[in-house]
Every structure is written in structure tokens, then in C-alpha cells.
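pinned: reference chain
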Amino acid sequence: MKTMLIAALLALAGPAPADVPLQPTGKWTVEYADAACILSRDYGPSNARMALGINPSPLASGLEVVTVTPGAKTTRYRPMKGTLTLQPSGRTIDSDISVYEIKEKNQTITTLTTEGDVATEILRSSSLSVTLANGSRTAFAIPGMSGAAGALKACQDDLLHQWGIDPAERDLPSLANGSASPAQWITNDDYPSSAVGAGIQGTSTIVWTIRTDGKVGDCRVVQSSGSKALDDASCGAISKRGRYQPPLGVDGTPQVRHAMRKIVWRLPY
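pinned: its C-alpha cells
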């Protein structure tokens, strides 16, 4: 009888409420890095502080969503799949996710990478949530995005000026790739054998020129992986395989453009 009564009360209560987003405990800040402008904010109590970072590409429509949460029993890297969900639109985006557990800092860093024009939609959203393939899910309220967007744009403009690139390029239509997509231009076969043998891993951030014939021109590293071999392999693969439809300006005349990407080199465990 007691079990039946509990069941009846649960039925009257209706379905479980949707995830309640964590509320921020600090203001939005823009962190200036060598090759990124990261919009970040703290969440949760001081004894269990969490952080959310939003890192849109200064030259592309993709972005990274980074969460830093307390707790790590080991130090390791795990790739997995997950989803990013935006509210109030309800849009869900499947994504690759990197999970870094750092025992020394008692932190777990989750980086979710998206392609496409997600940055603009995030700036109009009231909350976002990150769901990992293992079922864990964290939702964050993100009020005040419209005000933070101005500071983020100013940072990105400064970054592009440092690279000798006109920030107005970001307002031009996206270029069509002439051969697959940049994500497919680099394969495991490009991993330098010297780096594999030495167990070297890292992330190279590179910027390249798109010539008026659609081919890749000069490529340079704007944030090194710490390994010359990995940096050289990043630019080498992009220069070899990168192809675009010939870029045009708003007036229809040929115009040199630029692109950038983070190349993550990770060895399997």
C-alpha cells in the first residue's frame, strides 16, 4: 500500500523538470590569447567552482565550448562524442568532444568543437548544455551575451590586425571548399614518424592564405604545438590538399582571403 501511495504521488507530480541551468557567479570576461579570444564565466559555489568558455574562431564560423569542472582521479585524455543544445531554440548539434582529466589540478576540462555558423546563434541564446556520450549533462545559463559580444568582437579585431588581416573578411560569405573540408585535409598518415616515436602530442593553430585561384598560399603557425615537426606537418597537409572555389569580393572581383584552423595531434592510448 505504501509503495502504491508513493507511485500515485509521483504520478500527480507530473514529469521530472527539465535540466535547470547553472546560474553564473561572475561576469563575462574576455581572455586574450595568442590565437584566440575566449569569452568565459564562473559558475557554482567557491568550493566547487566551474567555468564555461566560448571560443569562436576569428576567421571561421566554428567554435569551441570549453567547460572546467572540479574532480579528476587520474591524468588522461579521452575523445568521445557528444551534443551541444541551445535554448530557447532547442537546436542540438552533434560534436566531437575532448575530455582532459588533470589529477594534479583536480580538474576535468571538456572541449566541444563545432563546425558551421553556431557562434551567431549562441550569442542569441539564453542557455546551453553539453551532453557527453556517457550520459553526463551540464547546463549553463548565459545571460548578457549581447553585451559580451561587443568585447569579444573587439578582441578578435585586434587579433586579426596583428596577423595583418582585415577584420572585414569575417563579414564576407563563407567560401566553398573545392576538395572535401578542412577537417578531412589532415589524416593520421600525416602524423610525423619522429613525433610518433617520441610520443609527442600537441595542438597547432595555423592561418593560411586562399589565393584567387582557390589554392592555398602561405601558411603560418600563430600558436605552436611546441613541436616543429607537428607545426610543419599541419601547414604541409593544408598546403598540399587545401582547395577552394576561387574567392570573390562583394563586387564579384577576385579577392585573396584567409582561413585558420586548430590541428590537434593526439596519439592513441
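why pinned: Residues 1-18 have pLDDT under 50 and may be disordered. The chain has two domains: 23-156, 172-265.
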